Amino acid sequence: VGALQTNESCRSGQYTSRGECCKQCQPGEGVVEPCGVSQTVCAQCVDSETFSENFSHTERCQPCTKCTGLMRMLTPCTDTNDAICACDYSYYMSEVTGTCEPCAVCPVGSGVLMRCDPNHDTVCEECTEDTFSEDESMLDPCMPCTICEEEFDIQLASCTPTRDTICQ
């Protein structure tokens, strides 16, 4: 009589028809033949093509994610982990659309408070007193205004949010 052994835990929680605990495939392996009449049969996943992240007696190797379109690969697919993709440089993943969107460019008179990254758009701020931004940019913050040297320079124009001080 094939009695189940209760002193050892069966991690899969499943048994063959003969009462053996079903073997779990390790991460990096996938099920080729599921447990039932006979024991689980596992096979190695193919690096860069398929992967398996978990111990499982049911899960097959899964196809690797392909980074296409505006996506670039951050981490390649291995037999134990899927590829990780991110938006190309100058793009971010929009929570609204779920697609890569171009990073915002701060207009003249505004500077970058936070640069665009794969998950967040550029955050711009208006240049305040004593700062300016003469160019559109997705990289540069508002710059401090030039202070004319009293002894040598004459101030021809005051600093504005869109133009630096003009000294002569």
UniProtKB/TrEMBL annotation:
Disulfides per UniProt: 22-35, 64-77, 67-85, 103-116, 106-124, 127-142
Extent of the TNFR-Cys repeats: 9-42, 44-85, 86-124, 126-167
Protein name, per record: TNFR-Cys domain-containing protein
Listed SMART domains: TNFR (SM00208)
InterPro entries per the UniProt record, alphabetical: Neurotrophin_rcpt-DD, TNFR/NGFR_Cys_rich_reg, TNFR_16, TNFRSF16_N
Residue span(s) of domain TNFR-Cys: 9-42, 44-85, 86-124, 126-167
A Pfam match: TNFR_c6
Top-level taxon in the UniProt lineage: Eukaryota
Keywords in alphabetical order: Disulfide bond
An example Gene Ontology molecular-function term: coreceptor activity
Protein's GO biological process: Rho protein signal transduction
CC annotations in GO: cell surface; plasma membrane
Organism: Scleropages formosus
